[in-house]
Design a protein that fits this description.
Layout (H helix, E strand, L loop, with lengths): L6 H23 L3 E8 L13 E8 L6 H17 L5 E8 L15 H15 L5 E6 L4 H11 L3 E9 H7 L9 H8 L3 E6 L6 H11 L8 E5 L9 H9 L11 H9 L7 H19 L4 H17 L1 H12 L4 H14 L1
Helix pairs in contact: 1-3, 1-10, 3-9, 10-11, 10-12, 11-13
């Protein structure tokens, strides 16, 4: 059967397939990171001994959507690294997180991973950074575990530096997330450096140094660095940005690169119609069921070729899929998947 799935969903489904494959590997192997489909530039290969040891600048988050503050913080971290060591090789790793310390991801209020990868590609293609950029997938919630995962995956590490907001850094230093006393895990936590974002009037540089001097021994203060965001970047969270965009309210508070914004418009991102919500549920769940049945990606695409047009034209089915998903059930999709699997075989 010819694969006729609409072109704009093809790559999204490929990335979602890859993500769910990796999730199954994660369940067996513990905290790991894996690269997604692409690397930038295309000719960079992370093979042992192929390049000198590098400083890995890493941002982990949902990137739904990736924003101008993400890019600004990365550029500031690079500048600070080069000011201390101009000849040090730098590599950038952008990690889409599948696991949060205290959050559960839900496709009803999040984009499919495929869209997020494509938005990141648009952003970094537009930025033209002269450094290798790897878009990766992570199932690691705690940064103490992420250090180990990064060390396991990359072979040419000289230094690891994380870029994050103050809210995340406070969790890094929150004893509730560790079995041992915080002082006992400091050596592991600070195998990496930390670049912390703030802005005057919200969380200033003075606030930052007051916080770290209170929380950290003096010998660790050189491991933390403050990055100041320009005042034009309103520190609204990603859910607020998605809400603005879903209502087509684009203003100065939506700090999204023009090329990413164009992508969002092209794909009607963050719409909240039942049809779109049911489509996301179908893509995610059909891929999950196909992997569980140990069938290949082509089978999933064929099933979705049949299923998505049915969803588009059936409002009752849309509501049923959404309700079952909210109840963490998937009876209707399993029944449809079984029927369509027999049809395409």
């Amino acid at each position: 059967m010819e694969i006729s799935l609409h072109k704009k969903l093809e790559n999204v489904i490929q990335v979602e397939w890859k993500a769910q494959e990796l999730q199954k590997q994660f369940e067996k192997s513990g905290p790991l990171i894996k690269p997604l489909i692409r690397m930038f530039p295309k000719d960079i290969h992370l093979e042992k001994g192929s390049v000198p040891p590098s400083n890995y600048l890493i941002i982990q988050g949902s990137f739904d959507p990736p924003t101008l503050p993400h890019l600004d913080l990365l550029l500031k971290a690079i500048d600070l690294c080069l000011s201390k060591n101009p000849s040090e090789p730098i590599k950038v790793v952008i990690l889409l997180s599948l696991s949060h310390v205290d959050k559960k991801l839900n496709v009803l209020d999040r984009s499919l991973l495929g869209y997020r990868v494509e938005m990141l590609e648009v952003l970094f293609n537009s930025s033209k950074l002269p450094y290798p950029i790897t878009i990766g997938l992570s199932n690691v919630a705690r940064y103490i575990d992420l250090i180990k995962a990064v060390q396991h995956f990359f072979n040419d590490i000289k230094k690891i530096s994380f870029i994050m907001g103050m809210d995340v850094f406070k969790k890094v230093l929150d004893p509730i997330y560790y079995i041992k006393p915080l002082e006992d895990v400091f050596p592991k936590i600070f195998e990496a450096d930390y670049f912390i974002a703030g802005r005057e009037g919200v969380f200033s540089e003075d606030d930052f140094y007051f916080f770290v001097q209170d929380k950290l021994p003096d010998y660790l203060l050189e491991k933390v660095h403050f990055l100041s965001l320009p005042n034009q970047f309103k520190l609204i969270n990603a859910s607020q940005i998605r809400d603005y965009l879903s209502k087509k309210q684009v203003n100065e508070e939506v700090n999204v690169h023009p090329d990413v914004l164009e992508y969002l418009k092209k794909h009607n991102m963050y719409q909240t119609t039942p049809e779109w919500q049911a489509t996301k549920i179908a893509i995610q769940t059909v891929i999950q069921l196909t992997l569980e049945a140990e069938k290949n990606q082509i089978a999933a695409i064929k099933i979705l070729n049949h299923f998505l047009p049915i969803i588009k034209s059936d409002e009752i089915l849309q509501q049923k899929l959404i309700k079952e998903y909210q109840l963490e059930e998937k009876k209707e999709i399993i029944e449809r998947w079984n029927q369509l699997s027999k049809l395409i075989s």
